[in-house]
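Lecture 7 notes: from sequence to structure.
We start with the chain below.
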Amino acid sequence: MNLLNYISIIGLSLFTTIIFIILILYSDRKSKEPTYIIFLCLISCIFTICLSLLFGQVLLPKLDIISIGLFDYNTNNIFKILILALVEEYSKLIVLYLFLSKNSNFDDIYDGFVYSSLIALSFAALESLIYVFNEPNIQSMKSLAILRGITTVPLHLICGISMGYFMGKEKFTWGTKRRVLNLMLCLLFPTFLHFIYNFTLSNIINRFLNSNLLILIIILFFIPFYLIGIIFINKTKFLNEKFLNNKHYKNLMTKDEYIKISNK
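Predicted structure tokens for the same chain:
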């Protein structure tokens, strides 16, 4: 494969990710994040992918020794799909919570959406490159790159959007119990979406593998996930507007209240 083919494959693999990153940063143009935070989010894939591979390819297969068939790494049973989805979302949450949630630049609810989405897209980009370049020929590489661009990459983004929504609530909610609940939802809800996607898609592919309608069926299957992403974006914008305008809403802080406790 010559250099031009490499460039075209990489371009196809990253095209959707780059578009989404541009749109996210543009949506946050009135309250731009520091360059170093954006950079940290975009290189977080080095950590998240490595952690996922460590668990998914090294540690989890060994569970088959003690699970009495509950976790057979060579089959796509429900338990395996669930654990792998959990591992991937947990790796993203580690970066978001440990390195960004306590940062002083995380000063409104919308920042949770920005940071988490960029982390998710970073993961999706590197994962796509790994899968695409494992294909045996150029045509299959291009086909997989396009398919992942319209399904898997947006799926990771939607999981990131929901994680960012709950992280924004966790940071700006009164009460320890409510914050713990939101932190749990940061992991559990994206994992649930990821699991439903992986489990259903694997069954669709197995059933319609040789059908000319496979791509159309996959796209139709993905429409509800897009709708979920839109709902969470709108919910995030709604809560952030309440926060910035110092309007009390349920158990959320206002911006002035947050500034006061931050300056103590």
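Points to note: Residues 176-208 form the longest helix (33 residues). The chain is about 75% helix and 0% strand.
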